[in-house]
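INFO  loader      accepted 1 record
INFO  loader      residues=221
INFO  predictor   begin
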Amino acid sequence: MRQTEPLRVVLAEDGILIREGIAGLLRRFGHDVVATVGDAKALTSAVSAHRPDLVVTDVRMPPDFTDEGLRAAVALRTSYPDLAVLVLSQYIELTYAAELLDSPSDAGVGYLLKDRITDVSEFVNAAERIAGGDTIIDSKVVRQMLRRQRHPLERLTDREREVLALMAEGRSNAAIAGALVVTEAAVGKHITSIFTKLDLPPADGDNRRVLAVLTYLRSGA
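INFO  predictor   done
INFO  writer      dumping tokens
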């Protein structure tokens, strides 16, 4: 179902030129961009303040440039079941894309790859359809989801796999943070997510770390 009334949109994108370009495009087609923000925390605040019809968000944003925007989108769909969400990305993050689609909401949702958007009117049409309740996923993302293997490691994002590989090398959280140029707090969050996705129940932290590494080594990755 295509949305024909002007949309109230919150736009999250850390690149100012891209952000202003998308905002200008949406406004040119008659939509009201009520807030433009550059990080996931500001996105959450803007949605709370403006209650938009549609969120358009990038995946990787400050402070760690991993998957903050996509994680915020998943959380927002849970908190605001009527909120439509369109994720724009240069990357395919299969785990969070699946969570985005599985989130308990009947509102429209989309996951489009930036470098595959070649027509501005088609992009705006997709945004309007998503706001109207449609689900639109880039065909390249769909194909990768269908090819996805069942091994537990396939549940991890690319960054989580990087963290696990460094864990397998015996590196500390501080060393992993230095190698990936992220904060130790970000590494800790990734490790917690790894434990959850590998179905490792709460136990002694060192023991779970060893079990996670064993899973990695047995995969032959």
